[in-house]
Amino acid sequence: MTLKTVGVLGGMGPAATVDFMDKLLKATHAPTEQDNLRLLVDCNPHVPDRNHLAPDGPQPGPVLADMARGLERSGADFVVMACNTAHAYEGDIRAALGVPFVSLIAETAATLKTRHPAVKRVGLLAASGCLDARLYQDAFARNGVESLTLDAAGLHRFMTVLYEIKRGNVSDATRAEMRALADLLIAAGAEVVIAACTEVPLVLAQPDIAKPLLDTTAVLVERTLAYARDGEALPG
Question: Is there a catalytic annotation at residue 43?
Fold first, then answer.
C-alpha cells in the first residue's frame, strides 16, 4: 500500500485543525504507527480573518497561496484545508499549486447527494464570510438543494458564539447556544443541518439535534483517507 502525503492548510482556527487531525488519526485505524498518513501541516492562525476584511487591508488569498506552495515544496501530494470560509480563496490556492487541491465545499456537496439524495432543504451553520461568498448555497443549488440560513439576528448570535469557540470557550452554555441555532434552522424546514464551519463540530454533535448533522470536518477526514490511502483518483 502506497500512502500519499497530505498537505493541510490550517490554523483557521487552531482548534479546528487539531480536531481534523484527531478525527483523521482515529478514522485511520492503523494497525501500526507506520500505517498512518504523513501530514504536512501549516497551522497558521495569522491568516487574515476571513469574516472581517478591510478592502485595502491584508487579504487571505496571498497568505494561503504562500502556505500552499510551502506544503507542495515540502512534499505534499495533494492539499486540503480545514476551514470552510477560506474556500472563498480557493482560486488563489489552486493557482499556486502544481498538485491537486481537494475542496471541502465540493466534497461536502457530493457527500450530501450520496447520503441524503432525497433532501431538498439544508440548514447552514456557517460564518458570515462563507455565506457572503455563497460557497455552499451555490454548490448545493447545482444539485437542486435549497440552503436555509439564519436571519440577521441569528447570524449575529452565531458569529458571537463562533468567536467564543475560537477563544477556547466550549462550555455548556456555548454548546446550548449552538444547539439553539441549529434548532432554528430545523424549525425553518431544514432536513439536514450542515456544520459549515469547522468550529461547529467542537460544540455540536449528532445526538444534540433532531435532524441529521453533516459534519464537514468528518467529510474532509473521509475524503482525505479515500485519496491518500484507499487509492481513489484525486479530483482534477
Answer: no
CA distances from 150 to 9, 49, 85, 145 (A): 28, 21, 16, 17
Q: Say which of 68, 71, 83, 109 is annotated catalytic.
A: 83
pTM for the model: 0.96
With 80 as the cut, is the pLDDT of residue 121 above it?
A: yes
Domains in the chain: ranges and CATH: 6-103+218-228 (3.40.50.1860), 105-215 (3.40.50.1860)
Q: What is the pLDDT of residue 56?
A: 87
Of the residues 80, 82, 195, 197, only one is catalytic, namely 197
Residue 116 has pLDDT above 70, yes or no: yes
Concerning whether 197 is annotated as a catalytic residue, the answer is yes
C-alpha–C-alpha distance, residues 163 and 169, integer Å: 9
Q: Provide the CA 100 distance to its chain's centre, in angstroms.
A: 17
Helix (H, G, I), strand (E, B) or coil at 81: strand
Q: Name the strand (E) or helix (H) holding 187.
A: helix 172-187
**Mean pLDDT score, 138-150:** 98
**pLDDT bucket at 1, cuts 50 / 70 / 90:** low
